[in-house]
Design goal:
Elements: E1 2-4, H1 7-18, E2 24-27, H2 31-58, H3 65-79, H4 82-92, H5 103-119, H6 128-139
Parallel strand pairs: 1-2
Helix pairs in contact: 2-3, 5-6
């Protein structure tokens, strides 16, 4: 449970708030609790979309779905580390140091993902918007970055 508001009130009542489901103080702005919740749910929806797309790609093939689920779970667990790296890059503003998989390569790979989906008879609706953002960022001259630079493209003017 996220708590936003008076730090003093949280210090006084945090233990009681944590009795049901751990409470985390997120700041003195009460609206931050809701924002944290929506942000985490947004990430969850993105993961669910990726999982749905992955299963859609393999479901009509001779693929044991339980075995594939194990591979997918292990892969997603490995990818979780990107969360901390993304935060560090966003805080520093440096999207290029130590990049392992640059955006130009990811954009090319995105084209392969879209083409493969089409070949498998799977809609690209879940992947196409992200692929378009990668292509746009590369076209702006940022192909040497990692994907965190895309976040700036999500701001609504």
């Amino acid at each position: 449970m996220f708590y936003g508001g008076s730090r003093e009130a949280f210090a006084e009542h945090g233990e009681a708030l944590s009795a049901v489901a751990g409470a985390v103080f997120v700041g003195e702005d009460a609206g931050l609790a809701d924002l944290y919740d929506v942000a985490l749910l947004s990430a969850m929806n993105g993961v669910f979309a990726g999982v749905a797309h992955a299963f859609a790609l393999v479901r009509d093939e001779d693929v044991p779905l339980g075995d594939f689920a194990s591979l997918l779970s292990d892969w997603l667990t490995t990818m979780v580390g990107v969360v901390h790296t993304s935060a560090e890059r966003l805080e520093s503003g440096d999207h290029t140091t130590g990049v392992v998989s640059n955006l130009a390569m990811q954009a090319r790979g995105g084209r392969t993902l879209l083409r493969t989906a089409e070949e498998q008879g799977v809609s690209t609706a879940l992947l196409a918007p992200y692929a378009e953002l990668m292509e746009r960022r590369v076209a702006q001259g940022h192909g040497d970055e990692d994907g965190t630079g895309i976040i700036g493209l999500l701001a609504v003017p």
